[in-house]
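Appendix B: complex inputs.
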Amino acid sequence: MADLFEVSKRVFPVRCAALSSADAGAGLTFRFGFHPSPFGEAIAVETAAGLAGLGWVDAKDRAGTAATTGKAAGGRDGALADMTRRWPRGLFVEDVARTARLVARAFDPGTWHAGPPLPVTLIGTPFEIEVWQALTLIPPGETTTYGVLAQRLGRPGGARAVGAAVGRNPVSFVVPCHRVVGASGALTGYHWGIGRKSAILAWEAQQTS
DNA sequence: AAACGAGGTTCCT
DNA sequence: AGGAACCTCGTTT
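Resulting structure:
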């Protein structure tokens, strides 16, 4: 089930375990917690195999939630719903003490290269996992485009498919979906808000300078 | 600057 | 199986 790989020194060192999303998270326990971050209050979700989800609470233009459920889905409830919707058959348990450790390290670049790689669980379709793994190879401070990424994956013309897969990345920030931009260089879209995408990119540009 | 069609994959019905 | 949705792209108005 899990194919493991490691990435180079330049990027955030993560050890990825890949899981199929076909069973919608059945049989898995997801521990979640809310934590402050440089980009707003974050929600982190982890399984025994590592960080499975990372998102933000105040995503006004977050796609889906309110529109598809008909319920007001703001605040922490909305952020949690965004995660439970990805793995509807999983068991979700609040465990802030547990998630705090992964979150603290994720947002402190000084600790990225200290100790073992950050464990990450990628739960998705084979194509999505292929795309998400490619994302982890983009170094901080750099960007690429959906078209280039598609080409790199041997699917020239699949830019839109790549864009859709990038948009479904559950582990934002750690799996750097924010480092993919449109062919013109414009920040074309971000699940957690374009403003946050530009804030993260600016933060990374400063970190790496 | 905005409208359009083709495009790959996924998730519905 | 068919159709719509998506963090696209290149061309055309």
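The first helix of chain A runs from residue 65 to 69.
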